[in-house]
Amino acid sequence: MNRLTTSQGAYALARFPENPRDPFRAWDAADEYLLRRLEGSEGSDPVHPAGTVVVVGDRWGALATVLAAHRPVQITDSYLSRRATEANLARNGAAPDAVRLLSVRDTPPDRIDLLLVRVPKSLALLEEQLHRLAPAVHAGTVVIGTGMVKEIHTSTLKLFERIIGPTRTSLAVKKARLILCTPDPALPRAPSPWPHRYELPDDVGAVSGRTVTNHAGIFCAERLDIGTRFFLKHLPRRSGPDRVVDLGCGNGVVGMSAALANPEATVTFVDESYQAVASAEATFRDSAPADAEADFVVGDGTADMPPSSVDLVLCNPPFHSHQAVTDATARNMFHGARSALRQGGELWVVGNRHLGYHTQLRRIFGNCVTVAGDPKFVVLRAVKR
Predict the structure, then answer these.
(1) How do strand 167-169 and strand 176-181 relate by DSSP bridges?
(2) What is the fold of 2-181?
(3) CATH superfamily of 196-383
(4) Does the bond joining 195 to the residue before it have cis omega, within 30 degrees of 0?
(5) What percent of the chain has pLDDT over 90?
(6) Does 196-383 match 2-181 at the fold level?
(7) Whole-number Å distance between alpha carbons of 264 and 283
(8) pLDDT tens-digit profile of 90-136?
(9) Binning pLDDT at 50, 70 and 90, where does residue 222 land?
(10) Domain ranges of the chain
């Protein structure tokens, strides 16, 4: 845990799940730059939050916690960010209802007077959210975006310009930059192009030729990524009433393949992204038999699943947390999978060969075998003994 110091005070902040060995803070220079801009300490007049304040993409709740006195609305695609916000508000003495917590799937406020946007990694998610928020923005709305320089591109600015209004950027400070946008109510309102749908190739097992639904912001929303494609060709062949988890499900294509290959299985699709779980459910409903059983969960992996309740976990873990490259997410997934699995239950993982997941799996499970591999990817299997 670290302390973010502002003119309003010092705030104890942590990411979620909280880990004392986590080397990353719950905020960065982009969050600090935005807060200084609101205070007027960047050479401009202060912005006094009034009316409806909306904070979009607040990664670990730092912005919402500092602005809690103004009762903002936080909109996020991340379950972990939402839990971090709740924890950070509580540890800093804010009332439980100080911040209205919405997901990107929820209906946004009808009117927005101050819109603060933390630029996401996904340009598509930014596009979709600006389309959803634009009708609530009026001529007097103050719109400020923030991000690290490497996160803000010409395409980012063009989105603000096209959907909200004239846009400029600030000078860079500590490798962070602000996006200053003036709403233009006369701009035509175009519909969002999301979700996207595409047909799977004909050589990926049970899901060959099926249609996949992809909401904005999920991994490889435009096409099947090569790691998942490799995984689909090497999934286990099982039968019987298995309980299967598609862990970090994305658009759900892996779990759907397991469901189609074994109609007796019950599949749980889980992801920390609200957009991902909505994509997985749409994908499943379009292709699965009407009587197929499945659960769709937005959550912290298998953390809320009963121990020793699962037969098979399928996982294509991410190796980024926002812009940071880290194996912490995969490691947490592997530990959680072991807890959820029954004795004899199996975890199947696909990953880039260079990530060395076999070492972690041997440490956690005591065993690991390579099922398949090519020069780039490996499929690994670990069994709970």
Answers:
(1) antiparallel
(2) Rossmann fold (3.40.50)
(3) Vaccinia Virus protein VP39 (3.40.50.150)
(4) yes
(5) 89
(6) yes
(7) 19
(8) 999 999 899 999 999 999 999 999 999 999 999 999 999 999 999 99
(9) confident
(10) 2-181, 196-383
Instruction: Determine the average pLDDT of the residues in 365-371.
Output: 98
Predicted TM-score of the model (pTM): 0.95
Q: Are 360 and 343 in contact (CB under 8 A)?
A: no
Residue 97, judged by CB atoms within 10 A of its CB (0-12, 13-18, 19+), counts as exposed
Amino acid found at 230: F
**How does strand 320-321 pair with strand 324-325?**
antiparallel
| Mean pLDDT, residues 256-274 taken together | 96
Per-residue model confidence as pLDDT tens digits over 25-67:
999 999 999 999 999 987 788 999 999 999 999 999 999 999 9
65 CA to centre of own chain: 20
Residue 217 C-beta-side C-alpha neighbours within 13 Å: 25
How crowded is the C-beta side of 249, counted as CA atoms within 13 Å?
41
Are 61 and 13 in contact, with CB atoms under 8 Å apart?
Answer: yes
What b/e readout covers 128-143, taking b as 16+ CB neighbours within 10 angstroms? bbbbbbbebbeeebbb
Alpha carbons 134 and 128: distance in angstroms, whole number? 10
